Amino acid sequence: MKKELVIFLIVCGLAAGLGLKTLTAQEADKTVAQGVYTSEQAARGAQVVENYGCRNCHGGQLEGGPEEEPPLWGEQFVTAWSGRKLDELAEKITTMPANADPGYQVKPAAAPDVVAYLLQANGYPAGAAELPADPKALKRITIVAP
Question: pTM of the prediction?
Answer without folding.
Answer: 0.80
